[in-house]
Amino acid sequence: DTEVTQTPKHLVMGMTNKKSLKCEQHMGHRAMYWYKQKAKKPPELMFVYSYEKLSINESVPSRFSPECPNSSLLNLHLHALQPEDSALYLCASSQAGGLGYGYTFGSGTRLTVV
Amino acid sequence: ILNVEQSPQSLHVQEGDSTNFTCSFPSSNFYALHWYRWETAKSPEALFVMTLNGDEKKKGRISATLNTKEGYSYLYIKGSQPEDSATYLCALSLNTGNQFYFGTGTSLTVIP
């Protein structure tokens, strides 16, 4: 299996809702990432997990809460989001510490906050 | 904030034309330069990883070059086909930290 699977593909949520995005990979990669992409902007890093431990949090608001329950799964819990949080959320994985290897990406979750 | 710039932002070419676009990046602390091809509603697909100044990589009709001293990489597509239509993203990784810095992408449309 050489894929990163993200679910759901699309999500519409209200500002008072709680929802979760899920990301799964079975390539044995020990680094996993959440990126956020707004239209016509580059993907921006949100969180990095390395060996299931949070290693980078790029000053993301606490309404986004990441979780890495095991080496194959990465979740992003969403609560009390704002309309400006509407974006494409991309998950990626890589061999830990191997920036020369590149990422394997999921196809993203398109989130709309209403 | 680290600036990785791609130009042009978008490009329309006729089928059969060859084309190229640029990724510019700061050259300090360089570790690797990555190119991805991203079709709408799909996952970005890795094309090339380049680490050495002067690297040239080729995959079918697509090739890339790297100049780390002046901080740029070119991606070339020879004889463009409609299936080449996609956004081409470059990303920089540094020898410090554990993340990529992405450009905004070049959107290529190949007209049959």
Description:
The complex is a heterodimer of chains A (114) and B (112). Helices cover 0% and strands 56% of the residues of chain A. Chain A has 114 residues and is an all-beta fold. The N and C termini of chain A lie far apart (36 Å). In chain A, 36% of the residues are buried. The mean pLDDT of chain A is 92. Chain B is mainly β. In chain B, a hairpin with a 5-residue loop joins strand 9 (86-94) and strand 10 (100-102). Chain B has strands at residues 5-7, 10-14, 19-24, 30-38, 45-50, 56-59, 62-67, 72-77, 86-94, 100-102, 106-111. The radius of gyration of chain B is 14 Å and the shape is globular. The A-B interface holds A 3-4, 31, 33, 40-43, 45, 48, 50, 55-56, 90, 97, 99-108 and B 4, 9, 31-32, 34, 36, 41-44, 46, 49, 51, 89, 91, 93-94, 97-105.
Rg of chain B (C-alpha, Å): 14 Å
User: The biggest beta sheet of chain B, please?
Assistant: 6 strands, mixed
DSSP strand tally of chain B:
11
Radius of gyration of chain A: 13 Å
Element pattern of chain B in H and E: EEEEEEEEEEE
Count the DSSP helices of chain A: 0
- The proportion of residues forming helix of chain B, as a percent range, comes to under 10%
Secondary structure elements and pairings:
The complex is a heterodimer of chains A (114) and B (112).
Chain A: E1 4-7, E2 10-13, E3 18-25, E4 31-37, E5 44-50, E6 53-57, E7 64-70, E8 73-79, E9 87-94, E10 104-105, E11 109-113
Parallel strand pairs in A: 2-11
Antiparallel strand pairs in A: 1-3, 3-8, 4-5, 4-9, 5-6, 7-8, 9-10, 9-11
Chain B: E1 5-7, E2 10-14, E3 19-24, E4 30-38, E5 45-50, E6 56-59, E7 62-67, E8 72-77, E9 86-94, E10 100-102, E11 106-111
